Amino acid sequence: MQSRHPVIVIGAWCLYDWASSAFPVIVTTFIFATYFTTKVAENTIIGTYQWANATALAGIIIAFTSPLFGAIADYGGHHKRWLFCFTWLAIIASALLWFAYPHHSAVYFTLACVVVGTIGLEVGTVFYNAYLAYIAPKNYLGRISGWGWGTGYIGGILALTIALVVFVDANALGLNTQNAEEIRISGPFVAIWYALFSLPMFFLTPDIPSQPHPLRQAIRFGFRDLLATLKKLPSEKNILLFLVAHMIYADGLNTLFAFGGIYAAGTYGLSFKEVLIFGITMNITAGLGAILLSWVDDYLGSKFTVIVSLICILIFGLPILFMEHKYGFWAMALVLCLFVGPVQSASRSLMVRLIAGKGAATEMFGLYALSGKITAFIGPWLLGEMTLAFDSQRVGMATVLTFFVMGILLILPVKVKEDRLLRSNTAN
Fold first, then answer.
1. CA-to-CA dists, residue 332 to 43, 261, 315, 338, angstroms
2. Where is the signal peptide (predicted)?
3. Which residue in 296, 339, 343, 294 sits closest to 316, CA to CA?
């Protein structure tokens, strides 16, 4: 991994997060999520329910394929090729969203594109995350992970700003607004953004060192080792505890982001333009949190950073369920987002610390993805069911906070070497 200057490698790695961030920000969170529930689906409630089911389906598929692909890559090598294939799966699905017409007949086509694109994004992230263990010095794990998340948030901000200013607001391309072309163009825009800014990752970052086996043999060995890893996982108590905790609070975070724009539009009456501005400001604070608080990860520990950030999300999340004025909601949501980035970046670096010296990094990050997705259907499903049952988005959103409480309780017993180092440094 040292054939090029480390700064170039790290920069190219971070820029991939910049590239891929356009999909979750524009497609699954703000523009297309809101567009689908307000223009494509029959009504907002049914649209929320359908979007939740599609998100859940994608999560189930990702959960059961990520570890297997990771294990296969550890034997077959060519991590960059795997990343390239899944990246382009997301890119093609994004481009096809141009055909997501504002009519009920486009419901299943739109949802299919979103599901396929999400699978490409998330499975590709397994291979992307595995690079962190190879490019980051141990004493910079937290900061480099935070810089990656922060770069991604900045990319999301810029992409969403362009979508707002150039397409939705100014309609600089003179598109047909009666057929929602100024909104549908966001799909091809994501595809171009994703393809263009992911190029440095593929050209400037060396592949992860490996001794590749033929694909058929890699599949057989990968499947065998994955089963062996799952069998011995109960004996790896720290990793197992963390994966279970991550499984719970990641479900909460994914649901929070997937339905943030929908909740803002449906409960507080934010217009489509306001939802986009809300998304931009949310990403600004999340990016600042990931970058500015990344030093806490390296100096006070990844586990400490995750727990404190989750507690802060709870503190600022509760008032959002009861506020009536949209600007009060907006302000509280921005403060909450300041702690979302640190949870995500510190979780990734904590996984690297826990698996240090155990080998099979991609397989382990496949399990990390599994923990983030295996119950991913529960959050959206529960939110959708409660929203439908009580005819209230507030009740549906309230279910998200329970995932953070459970995550905190489950991660507390996890023991990390960094904790001992922290106590040693404090004693000195």
1. 28, 15, 10, 10
2. none
3. 339
Distance (Å, whole) CA 124 – CA 350: 20
- The 3-state DSSP composition of the chain as helix, strand, coil percent (nearest 5) reads 85, 0, 15
* Long-range contacts of residues 8-13, Cβ cutoff 8 Å, at least 24 apart: 8/204, 9/135, 9/204, 9/205, 9/206, 10/135, 10/136, 10/144, 10/147, 11/200, 11/204, 12/200, 12/201, 12/203, 12/204, 12/205, 13/128, 13/131, 13/132, 13/135, 13/148, 13/201, 13/205
Quote the CA–CA distance of 212 and 75 in Å, as a whole number.
Answer: 6
Which residue matches tokens 């990520």? 66
Query: How far from the centroid of its chain's Cα atoms is residue 234's Cα?
Result: 26
> Residue 363 CA to chain centroid, in angstroms?
18
**In Å, how far are 77, 111, 198 from 14, measured between CA atoms?**
22, 29, 10
Structural domains of the chain ordered from first start? 6-205+212-427 (1.20.1250.20)
Q: Residue 137 has which token pair?
A: 């010095």
**The pLDDT of residue 261 is above 80:** no
Could you tell me the sign of the dihedral formed by the alpha carbons of 219, 374, 384, 265, in that order?
negative
Of 267, 282, 288, 280, give the one whose Cα is nearest residue 332: 282
Model confidence, pTM: 0.76
Cα separations (Å) of 94 from 197, 202, 311? 15, 20, 35
What type of residue sits at position 265? A
Q: Which residue has the tokens 């171009």?
A: 192
State the Cα angle at 52 between 23 and 337, rounded to 5°: 55
Summarised one tens digit per residue, pLDDT across range 92-119 is 999 999 999 999 899 999 999 999 999 9
Structure tokens at 398: 């309230």
Q: Which of 136, 152, 125, 4 is nearest to 65 (CA)?
A: 125
Tokens 């963390």 correspond to 242
